[in-house]
Amino acid sequence: MASHEQEISQAITRIALAGDGAVLGLGLAVIAIRTWLKYNSNSKALAKVQATPVSRIRDLRMLLSDDKGTEQLVMVRGEVQPTAFAEATHGEGVLTTPNSGDEAVIFLKSQTCLYNEWRGLFGWSSDLRSLFGGSLKEQVTLSMRKVPFVLIESEGLQKFSHVHINLDNSRHPLPLTTVYHNLQPVDATPYTVFQAIFGRGYPVGLLDEEKILAPGKQITAIGHLHKTQNGQPGIKSCKSLPHFLTYLTKDQLVEELAIGKAVLFWSGIVISTVAIGVLTYAAFRNWRRFIEYWKRRRQAQLPTVEPNISNGVDDESGELPDGELCVVCLMRRRRCAFIPCGHLVCCSRCAQLVQRDSDPKCPVCRQSVHNSVRIYDS
């Protein structure tokens, strides 16, 4: 790892551990909240899928006639065919891919420009460049074509029941199959050399891919039942469900959602536990630091008393019995009693030193000291 990358990682670590881990704890808490939100949506989706029976396409007209104005969730499985084939119209038929020559009702062509990992003479990383609007490692261009298609259910040799698939405003992933994959190297140019010198990253290859949804495929559609403009049954996507069109059957879909729910549940438990632990530790450390700060501030506000040793006869250090010597310095007479314990065990100077400590305690009973009082002989 380069030195500048080490400095960046160290800076990120310092930021994450700031406040004795408070920033890290808050970040984990945000991740935990997002995990529980996903768990909640996944649980609702699983409940909806389990409660939705698999209907026959031929029965959808009857469900439309019984519709009471609410969006009804249905699940059907059928064969993909273009609308022109199912209704014997003269509309647009299937699409043909230019490279593989396969037929499709949905054709997605993508071209990915792959960039190298070279950082140039100045050592600029691609991640840092992307923050400032630089080139990325990959740049993708997409083009999609589709024709209206339906799911059909055979009732005989030439008679079909079908339902229209409405992809408008749908952001669900489509069950596409890759039929063409080709990587072509990009020839170097003088501009490429210029890019390499300044670490801008230069393209090394173009990846062309073609993905299709072919006629004749058996897929499952789960969404809201509605009536098309010509009175035919149609299905549109449901935003609260993770799938709209899928190759999975209902049992496979339920199994996949159940596994995702379990993973999200235990991930939420682990991340939440770690977040609570880190935040508790950070709160405890910061509270202790706050208490120590106020203790030091209180000690700094106490009046400084310097006992007069030269002229005072009360703190004399001559020949004294052992029972009258300060237990701290063992040189001067005991003259100050601590409050609230009341022990008369220190001279004036040592009593002041004890009080100035961050956590003042009596040298005899170890009880917290709030103040001290000077004792005079009568």
Overview of the structural elements:
The model is unreliable at 120-136 and 305-313 (pLDDT under 50). The chain has helices at 3-16, 18-51, 60-65, 83-87, 126-131, 190-197, 250-301, 348-355; strands spanning 72-82, 95-96, 103-104, 106-115, 138-146, 149-154, 160-166, 177-185, 203-213, 218-227, 233-236, 245-246, 336-339, 344-346, 371-374. The protein is elongated, with a radius of gyration of 39 Å. The chain is of the alpha+beta class and 378 residues long. Helix content is 35%, strand content 25%. The chain has three domains: 10-51 and 253-301; 54-247, no CATH class; 303-378, Herpes Virus-1 (2-Layer Sandwich). The protein contains eight helices and 15 strands. The strands form four sheets. Strands 1-6-7-11-10 form a five-stranded mixed beta barrel. Strands 5-4-9-8 form a four-stranded antiparallel β-sheet, with no helix packed on it. A three-stranded antiparallel β-sheet has the order 14-13-15.
| Ends apart, CA distance between termini | 78 Å
Using the CA coordinates, give the radius of gyration. Answer: 39 Å
- Number of helices in the DSSP assignment: 8
Largest sheet: 5 strands, mixed, barrel
Helix fraction by DSSP (H/I, runs of at least 4): 25-40%
The total count of strands amounts to 15
Could you report the average pLDDT, rounded to the nearest whole number?
Answer: 80
The low-pLDDT segments are: 120-136, 305-313
Overall, the morphology is elongated
Strand portion: 15-25%
Structural class: alpha+beta
- What strand order characterises the main sheet? 1-6-7-11-10
- Domains (count): 3
SSE string, helices as H and strands as E: HHHEHEEEHEEEEHEEEEHEEHE
